[in-house]
């Protein structure tokens, strides 16, 4: 549905986007991640027609965003980080104005605006001036204008920035609801939010794509070793003695807490899952486990690994490239 080909954006001598290639397929929620200065917002602005590219092209449902902007933009709803609101208008006036700009037929405008107001829960403030609304309601109004016309693709740049926890949860629920009928591209610095709602993640660093996969696969692929965390009333030395004959253990870290409970992280050999053996070992020793949980690499760990280092593991690049172009794995 969206195809980014060899995209380059330069500001003078600064290369903001460096020959970027990826595809966005229908029916998914995509997380678009990158540290500040990675080229994330620049890429999104080019994808939505706000900026021109130095080189390359962006195809929206087969239409070039630069050569056929009007047709391409029909398929996109965009919420920038700072919603483009006219604060001296009421909510209803503003949405009517946005609907007219989008070319929604006059006979359908009122009905569609009402439907969208109910969807994003702003019907109760439709006659209030936007400048008198809270940050959360303003964000909802911006989202409403993005959804107007029911475009196939909804692009959201930091939709939950500045919101309180309750508002963040409500925005997440709304994104999930939108994803039932739309393809959603979500940019956010809140990695827990991305992990919670996204089906697929794209990570860029220094203007280049460094990862493209599901959150689960990203965590598995960079985590060479999984680990298990336990808490028990046994002493650190007793923990090590109990685990002495459990196969598949790479390393054991222990720490005795003030309350007499011992915390331990048990690193597994690659490809092993020893949770059952750990449980059985402690049960045989008649020593109860207070907690036992898997503790693999998190999305935060993946993000830091890929965006702070100058290189990416070869195997990981291969997987990202395979996802990106749909090449048969045997050809790489």
UniProtKB/TrEMBL annotation:
Keywords (A to Z) from UniProt: ATP-binding, Nucleotide-binding, Transport
ABC transporter domain: residues covered: 2-231
Signal peptide: none
GO molecular function: ATP binding; ATP hydrolysis activity
Superkingdom of the organism of origin: Bacteria
One Pfam short name: ABC_tran
CDD domains: ABC_DR_subfamily_A
Any coiled-coil regions, as ranges: none
Stored SMART domains: AAA
Keyword Mitochondrion recorded: no
PANTHER family linked to this entry: ABC TRANSPORTER, ATP-BINDING PROTEIN
Family: Belongs to the ABC transporter superfamily.
Protein known as: ABC transporter ATP-binding protein
Species assigned in the record: Candidatus Mediterraneibacter faecavium
Lineage: Bacteria, Bacillati, Bacillota, Clostridia, Lachnospirales
